[in-house]
Amino acid sequence: METKDLFALVHPAIAVTVVFPLIGIVIHFAWQTRQRRLQPSGESKSKIPPTVGRDHVQLGKRLTGAVVGVCLLGLAFPTVSQALQNQTFTKQPWEALFLVLMFAATIASLVFLYQAHSRLWRVVFTVLTSLGVLVIGFQDSLLGRQQPWIYRRDFEWQVSHFYYGIVVTVLMIISLAIVQEIYQDRSNRWRLAHICLNSIALLLFIGQGMTGTRDLLEIPLSWQEPYVYSCDFVKKTCPTPTPPPGQP
Ligand code: HEM
Ligand code: HEM
């Protein structure tokens, strides 16, 4: 396999081997946390250990990091491969520098969000991390490119791996930001908001599994690119291959 194809597999491979198993464990603990909390107070000792809430949050925090990481990887691959192809590092160094700084600033904002305690700083770093992902995702529009580098599937945004990915990443960032609110709020409104938002996130994660595997089917290996990209994607036809020499 060519090196470029190998790099293209890094994002889906990490999503499948690291992120999705983590989602399963986080949801298992989420369900147990809820079951334990809603258990009638008179009932005899619960079989669910009291640590499930803590385990859910600990792994949830890691999940946020993993999802932001895998999202940035998904965006980094087309960005870097297109930058190399278009010689952006030498021809438009300012554009390359801007992109490198955006990736670095987004990661730094997430690190600060993990450490922030006051509500103000948590809001600031939530906005900055989410903005970073959005700016990198919409770099084509911001930089006025004719040929898009990021495949957003705007013509079919309802089933776009890009839009699902951006929304679910922002939902994970918000979950990390509101941990304190969930614990401090006696009316359970933040808890309810968390459950609603993350039920949507769960559906989007399933969508990511489906749209990601579809995209893997659609993207050709690099040696197949010249042939596949000469196909007409609207009419769904490809040029007839030339017959081998000696055949009519
Ligand atoms: C797909 C992902 C997730 C789902 C479906 C989910 C769902 C849930 C559910 C159902 C509960 C129990 C609510 C109850 O007591 O009624 C819960 C609690 C909680 N979740 Fe999540 N969650 C997810 C991810 C996260 C993440 C990423 C974080 C933080 C980084 C997080 C932080 C919390 C906190 C702080 C609680 C309260 C735990 C406690 O009571 O001890 N969750 N979540
Ligand atoms: C948490 C889960 C995931 C998130 C947040 C995520 C996010 C992203 C993002 C933002 C992109 C760049 C936009 C695009 O090209 O569509 C991308 C690309 C991609 N993702 Fe995912 N993804 C996830 C899971 C998966 C899975 C499970 C697969 C496949 C099994 C997958 C396969 C791909 C492929 C093939 C690309 C295209 C890369 C390219 O442009 O060459 N993703 N992903």
From TrEMBL:
Q: Name one Pfam family in it.
A: DUF4079
Question: Can you tell me where the transmembrane regions are?
Answer: 6-31, 63-84, 96-114, 121-142, 162-180, 192-211
Q: Which residues form a coiled coil?
A: none
Quote the InterPro entries the UniProt record gives: DUF4079 (IPR025067)
UniProt keyword list: Membrane, Transmembrane, Transmembrane helix
What name goes with this protein?
DUF4079 domain-containing protein
Provide the species name: Neosynechococcus sphagnicola sy1
